[in-house]
Design goal:
- This protein is globular.
- A seven-stranded mixed β-sheet has the order 1-7-6-5-4-2-3, with helices on both faces. It has a five-stranded mixed β-sheet with strand order 8-9-12-11-10.
- The chain is about 40% helix and about 15% strand.
- By secondary structure, it is of the alpha/beta class.
- Bound molecules: pyridoxal-5'-phosphate (PLP).
- The site of pyridoxal-5'-phosphate has 16 residues, from helix 4 and helix 5.
Length: about 450
């Protein structure tokens, strides 16, 4: 019963698991095994022929990981999920599952830097062209589309710009053309449900909010089961033509009896089988632990981030605050439409005094960790111009939303007074350095 709940708080504690059938254990066990004893030869051949779903080998599936997959699929309202070794593996598989050499994908320009590298270089080297378009106008996706376009791709709340993506608008452009929208929802679990707005696939780096404790790298692809791949055989040949790597299976046909899970199954039994970016059962266990408190944490992240914004608004040495609550016009409309229950836990701000101020601010922090990560329960800070974006030219930095004085905070769930005190401390150090330079 509990797993049929539509409430995130309940799903995150119950979906996909009740108790260990062998021992009655309530916590999900870590099935630290590579392989699984088949009952007999018929059982083994049924599993390999996908006539029956079950465990074969941990590179492809594992009972601990299975609970994680079921839980996140339930949270998103999808039909199946595939856990992977990292968010990067999830983004790569999400595309490679549909696009082959000679094909293309249209992506938002506003992406995590690692995804940008994957798209602009590695996929390009594999013959898959990613066409980057500005999401300010959803029609840019249509304009960049041709007959070899296999997917649209975007992040719900990309940083550093923190401008929300027009999910329904772009999904609606793609659907009649047979082009699915793949949404990286890493920064906004619970706040945004991309499938409710027409997305077909959701990607997560579970390393961030889903795991939430900064202890394990992981990724997930969720199949919405809401996209009619079979209706577009020419647009989606990877799912509609015989797959020689699986004795000629046509994925939309082969898995019909199992439900609308062609996309998820193909990714598992071909890409994961061949490339092997499997999540370890131990990491799956840690991410499941994180999921149990995700709803509580997201509420606190959002509340504390809003309080940090309110504090920054009182400071004269902060010239700009980057947070959905401070946006106007179309960006604010999109934030209001797509973020429910809060504007997320990320806050950017612009310090007077450029790079040097940014550096001084970060060096003076005592509570915040100075790390290249987001979504930890702890508060994190980084100065992109001297770290994550330092390889870009100044013009390129500006195009991605990073100016010299830009500081990014991933606001944690500590007591808000302690978070604000630490930020105040950093601002005072930056002000002292400005005063010294001016003297
Ligand atoms: N997507 C987003 C939005 C991210 O922020 C990150 C990592 O920072 C990734 C994907 C990649 O995830 P991972 O580091 O787990 O490979």
């Amino acid at each position: 019963m509990s797993t049929h709940s539509r409430h995130a708080e309940t799903i995150l504690l119950h979906a996909g698991w009740r108790a260990d059938p062998a021992t009655g254990a309530v916590a999900v066990p870590i099935y630290q095994t590579t392989s699984y004893q088949f009952r007999d030869t018929e059982h083994a051949s049924n599993l390999f022929a996908l006539k029956e779903l079950g465990n074969i080998y941990t590179r492809i599936m594992n009972p601990t990981t299975d609970v994680l997959e079921k839980r996140v699929a339930a949270l998103e309202g999808g039909v199946a999920a595939l856990a992977l070794a990292s968010g990067q593996a999830a983004s790569a598989f999400a595309i490679q599952n549909l696009a082959r050499a000679g094909d293309n994908v249209v992506s938002s320009t506003d992406l995590y830097g690692g995804t940008w590298n994957l798209f602009a270089h590695t996929l390009k080297d594999q013959g898959i062209e990613v066409r980057f378009v500005d999401p300010i106008d959803p029609q840019n996706f249509r304009r960049a589309t041709d007959e070899r376009t296999r997917a649209y791709y975007a992040e719900t709340l990309p940083n550093p710009k923190l401008t929300v993506f027009p999910i329904a608008e772009v999904a609606a452009i793609g659907r009649p053309l047979g082009i699915p929208l793949i949404m990286d929802n890493t920064a906004t679990p619970i706040l945004t449900k991309p499938f409710e707005h027409g997305a077909a696939v959701v990607v997560y780096s579970t390393t961030k909010y889903l795991g939430g404790h900064g202890n394990s790298i992981g990724g997930l692809i969720v199949d919405g089961g809401n996209f009619d791949w079979a209706a577009h055989p020419e647009r989606q040949p990877a799912l509609n033509t015989p797959d020689p790597s699986y004795h000629g299976a046509v994925w939309t046909e082969a898995v019909k009896p199992l439900g609308p899970i062609a996309y998820a199954i193909k990714a598992r039994v071909t890409l994961l089988r061949d490339i092997g970016a499997a999540l370890s059962p131990f990491n799956a266990f840690l991410i499941i632990q994180g999921l149990e408190t995700l709803a509580l944490r997201m509420r606190e992240h959002c509340k504390n981030a809003q309080s940090v914004v309110d504090f920054l608004l009182t400071r004269k040495d902060v010239s700009r605050i980057i947070h959905p609550s401070q946006q106007q016009g179309v960006h604010r409309q999109r934030a209001d439409r797509y973020l429910k229950g809060g504007f997320g836990g990320l806050v950017g701000f612009e310090l007077a005094g450029g790079k040097e101020s940014g550096r001084r601010f970060i060096d003076a922090l005592q509570l915040h960790y100075h790390v290249a990560n987001i979504g930890d329960a702890r508060s994190l800070a980084i100065h992109p111009a001297t770290t994550t974006h330092s390889q870009l030219t100044s013009d390129e930095q500006l195009a991605t939303g990073v100016s010299d004085g830009y500081v990014r905070l991933s606001v944690g769930i500590e007591h808000i007074d302690d978070i604000v005190t630490d930020i105040k401390h950093g601002l005072e150090a930056a002000a002292a350095s400005r005063a010294r330079r001016a003297a």
